[in-house]
Amino acid sequence: MVSLGGLTNDEIGKRLGVSARQIQRWKATPEFAREVDHWVGEWRKRVKESGAAVKEVRLARLNRRLALMDQVVRERAAKLAGKAPGGSTGLVICQLKSIGAGDESQVVEEFLVDTGILREMRLHEEQVAHEMGDWVDRKELSGPGGQAIPVAVTALAELFTAEELEGAKQKLMRAQSRS
Q1: In the predicted model, what is the mean pLDDT of the chain?
Q2: Global pTM?
Q3: Residue 111: its H or E element
Q4: pLDDT tens digits along 26-55
Q5: Rounded to the nearest 5 degrees, what angle is found at the Cα of 129, between the Cα atoms of 72 and 86?
Q6: How far apart are CA 39 and CA 33, in angstroms?
Q7: Ranges of each domain in the chain
Q8: What is the structure's pLDDT at 177?
Q9: Rounded to 10 degrees, what is the CA torsion of 35, 41, 43, 48?
């Protein structure tokens, strides 16, 4: 009970028929502490070997949810094809909307892109890519101190003379000073 956590000494003592003080004395002994550590380790090992802690289980669950979302999209496509622009994609939802008031009110169909399911599908696919080690975070490159990366002038020097480069530099500086 101590290794599982979540219970006070009073609660453990009541369940075992001993005082909370006795539980505290047991906890102070090295043998008891080793036994608790052993069982904590066993619980952690079992948790790591089962359920969502297992990569293959997580991937199977992600794949199952993606398949269910795909099924929703397919069924929607069959139902809304021809009823609305984009209806055949299955990414459109139809909701009823009341317009007007009193005797003049009407209920009309409103068609919207289901951005929620698109977001969920993208997040699931991203998580699968992370799990598989295929995800690459794209980062903008920058030079020292976050500045722009300087263009290698040596490559330009091979194409142009020093006078041509200097002339281009002067033109650029004049254009920048005018703006």
Answers
A1: 87
A2: 0.53
A3: strand 106-113
A4: 999 999 999 999 998 888 888 777 777 788
A5: 30
A6: 10
A7: 9-49, 55-132, 149-178
A8: 82
A9: -170
Question: Which residue pairs from 38-47 have beta carbons closer than 8 angstroms and sit at least 24 positions apart in sequence?
Answer: 38/3, 39/3, 39/4, 40/3, 43/3, 43/4
- Taking Cα atoms as reference points, which of 64, 55, 70, 60 lies closest to residue 130? 55
Backbone φ and ψ for 107, nearest 5 degrees, come out as -105, 125
Rg (CA), the chain: 33
Whose structure tokens read 């003592």? 13
Confidence at 71, pLDDT banded by 50, 70, 90: very high
Contact assessment for residue 8 and residue 19, using Cβ atoms and an 8 Å cutoff: no
Distance of alpha carbon 47 from alpha carbon 68, whole angstroms: 27
- The beta-carbon contacts of 85-92 under 8 Å, at least 24 apart in sequence, are 85/111, 86/111, 86/113, 87/111, 91/117, 91/118
Closest CA to 32 of 53, 68, 3: 3
Contacts of 2 (CB under 8 A, 6+ apart): 12, 23, 27, 36
Largest CA distance in the chain: 97
Q: Dig out the tokens for 13 from the structure.
A: 């003592």
CA 91 – CA 79 distance, rounded (Å): 11
